[in-house]
């Protein structure tokens, strides 16, 4: 079982209070985690500062090549611990075991990718006056605060931690109170792997306590947040008090757009997977399906047939879909679905709970909603469950208007064989990522990711993600 303590300055620190963590598939306690307060957060920020400045440990003397070597070795350590980490992720988040395994693989890949990139990041020289030499230096920010959610703890740990370390920063990470066991195990592995003290500090706790204290701490130099737009606003306001730059990843309401000429055999499995993966609790979930009217009958029939076969069960049973993370998220989704039904929205098809599925789990079966009035909440708000909302369109212009009809803009999927339309739609869609004839690119560690509008700003993943953990210093030397 992972530690029920916080990691501060290379030591596991016991907090006065702890938080009980439950398995979402059973609603039963499986662990306790530390409940950090402002005091522990402050100690963690101090430790990260000392590690960065060289007062604690050897991190300040590590060059890019040494960081690269460490990140690559850590990727191998994650791979060696793969089954244990996967089992923790599966029990803690409720996601099917195959998905949990994929998440741990992705986590290791982040460390490989950024390990490979760490010693390839550099500044530029700039032609200026003849008696000048001008260069830019890419420098780490210093202490990076990272507040991460419960839906993909290990993957988001990889995305944030690997990039920040590759660039030479130190970190104070606040994992989510609902699921962070894999994160604690990863932190333990990082220490075992020889990461100097204070480079990675982990302060589990409640959002309103540890999270708020971290966002408002005057000692941090950069903040990245993944979570809801509402909490993102609070965090941004707190960081703004100290002029701390922020990266915000705030979810989405992403459309998958099926044109009449789409290869349905290729598209439909992506449509289904795009909404049931992680029980729909995915920022980039394809939660809206836009279908051209001339193929609507066939698409809806095939979709209904498939949804009726979908099974929900505990993660260990490795069914199509696991439970939601907690009773609060389930109650919120169910009340929205009830309101939708009261507004005349039809459930076209739904999956079911597997026989023998645990009775205390927070299960909501996958479902497809149809006949939705324009502008309805289920078309605008992130439901964060396995619920697909269908809309029909007649032509390209209408498809684009519907696709852009929410305040979010994280991802979009466009399914058509027409090359011109692929490009017109890709250019016209208001979102940070566009996939043509595929969706999600299997996580796309190498591909810059982030939103527009209410989905947030800043880019993570890929080389852009690495750059976002550095800032440019311009050095202009007049040599005469
Ligand atoms: O999110 P919160 P919640 C969306 C999704 C979901 C909704 C609510 O729509 O239904 O958010 O989920 C920490 N200061 N996403 O309530 O509150 C918290 O401890 C500082 C989208 O879980 O945003 C956790 O570590 N931090 C999403 C993190 O913020 C605070 C992933 C996220 O929690 C804080 C998760 C505060 N005042 C939810 N309050 C995505 N983009 O993938 C909470 N936190």
TrEMBL record:
Residues 12-475 form the Aldehyde dehydrogenase domain. It holds the Pfam family Aldedh. Keywords: Oxidoreductase. The keyword Isomerase does not apply. InterPro entries: Ald_DH/histidinol_DH, Ald_DH_C, Ald_DH_CS_GLU, Ald_DH_N, Aldehyde_DH_dom. The active site is at residue 249. It comes from the Bacteria. Belongs to the aldehyde dehydrogenase family. This is Aldehyde dehydrogenase family protein. The lineage of its organism: Bacteria, Pseudomonadati, Pseudomonadota, Gammaproteobacteria, Oceanospirillales.
């Amino acid at each position: 079982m992972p530690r029920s303590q916080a990691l501060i300055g290379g030591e596991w620190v016991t907090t006065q209070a702890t938080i009980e963590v439950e398995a979402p598939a059973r609603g039963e306690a499986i662990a306790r985690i530390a409940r950090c307060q402002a005091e522990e957060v402050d100690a963690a920020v101090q430790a990260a500062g000392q590690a960065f400045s060289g007062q604690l440990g050897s991190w300040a003397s590590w060059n890019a090549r040494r960081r690269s070597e460490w990140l690559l070795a850590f990727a191998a350590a994650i791979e060696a611990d793969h089954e244990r980490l996967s089992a923790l992720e599966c029990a803690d988040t409720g996601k099917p075991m195959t998905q949990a395994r994929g998440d741990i693989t992705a986590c290791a890949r982040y460390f490989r990718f950024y390990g490979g990139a760490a010693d390839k990041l550099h500044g530029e020289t700039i032609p200026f006056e003849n008696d000048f030499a001008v260069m830019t230096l890419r420098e780490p920010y210093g202490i990076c605060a990272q507040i991460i959610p419960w839906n993909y703890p290990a993957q988001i740990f990889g995305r944030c931690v690997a990039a920040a370390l590759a660039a030479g920063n130190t970190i104070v990470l606040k994992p989510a109170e609902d699921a962070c066991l894999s994160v604690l195990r990863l932190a333990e592995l990082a220490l075992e792997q020889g990461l100097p003290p204070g480079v990675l500090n982990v302060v589990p706790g409640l959002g309103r306590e540890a999270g708020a204290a971290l966002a408002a701490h005057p000692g941090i130099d950069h903040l990245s947040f993944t979570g809801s737009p509402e909490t993102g606003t609070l965090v941004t306001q707190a960081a703004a008090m100290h002029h701390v730059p922020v990266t915000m990843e705030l979810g989405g309401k992403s459309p998958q757009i099926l044109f009449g000429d789409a290869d349905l055999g290729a598209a439909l499995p992506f449509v289904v997977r795009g909404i049931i993966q992680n029980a729909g609790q995915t920022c980039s979930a394809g939660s809206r399906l836009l279908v051209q009217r001339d193929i609507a009958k066939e698409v809806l029939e095939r979709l209904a047939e498939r949804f009726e076969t979908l099974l929900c069960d505990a993660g260990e049973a490795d069914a199509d879909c696991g439970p939601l993370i907690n009773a609060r998220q389930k109650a919120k989704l169910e009340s929205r679905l009830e309101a939708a039904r009261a507004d005349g929205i039809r459930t076209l098809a739904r999956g079911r709970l597997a026989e023998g599925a645990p009775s205390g789990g927070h299960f909501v079966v996958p479902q497809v909603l149809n006949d939705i009035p324009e502008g309805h909440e289920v078309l605008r708000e992130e439901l964060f469950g396995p619920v697909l909302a269908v809309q029909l369109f007649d032509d390209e212009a209408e498809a684009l208007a519907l696709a852009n009809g929410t305040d979010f803009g994280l991802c979009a999927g466009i399914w058509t064989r027409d090359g011109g339309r692929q490009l017109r739609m890709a250019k016209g869609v208001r979102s940070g990522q566009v996939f043509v004839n595929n969706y999600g690119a299997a996580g796309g560690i190498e591909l810059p990711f982030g939103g527009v509008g209410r989905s947030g700003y800043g880019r993570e993943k890929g080389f852009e993600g690495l750059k976002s953990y550095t800032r440019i210093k311009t050095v202009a030397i007049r040599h005469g």
